[in-house]
Design a protein that fits this description.
With 114 residues, the chain is mainly beta. Helices cover 0% and strands 50% of the residues. The protein has strands at residues 3-7, 10-13, 18-25, 34-39, 46-51, 57-59, 67-72, 77-82, 91-97, 108-113. The strands form 2 sheets. Strands 2-10-9-4-5-6 form a 6-stranded mixed β-sheet, with no helix packed on it. A 4-stranded antiparallel β-sheet has the order 1-3-8-7, with no helix packed on it. The radius of gyration is 13 Å and the shape is globular. It starts with a strand and ends with a strand.
Length: 114
């Protein structure tokens, strides 16, 4: 069974940066279309960034130009680099496969203070 583990969240001031990591056992990220999702209190889970098996990327309009999704194949780790953070980015962030998602991990909390 696939286990997804997100890390790197924390408290940051508006305008600051954070880098999130996603690790997994039993799968190879680069062989799957992967994405980063977030869920803020009272809101639906939202796909904010995705990367294809060919390494093409796509971003939600709300984060485009500020977030970067990438995969380090040597480490089999997926990253989300977040720059120019805003209070509205506050959410729990999750990683998962785009098509036929695996079991969801616990996510990592990102809190942006104003």
């Amino acid at each position: 069974q696939v286990q997804l583990v997100e890390s790197g969240g924390g408290l940051v001031q508006a305008g600051g940066s954070l880098s999130l990591s996603c690790a997994a056992s039993g799968i190879i990220f680069s062989r799957n279309a992967m994405g980063w999702y977030r869920q803020a209190p009272g809101k639906q889970r939202e796909l904010v960034a995705q990367i294809s098996t060919g390494s093409s990327t796509n971003y939600a309009a709300s984060v485009k130009g500020r977030f970067t999704i990438s995969i380090d194949t040597a480490k089999n780790t997926m990253y989300l680099r977040m720059n120019s953070l805003k209070p509205e980015d506050t959410a729990v962030y999750y990683c998962n496969r785009i098509v036929a998602s695996w079991n969801w991990g616990q996510g990592t909390q990102v809190t942006v203070s104003s």
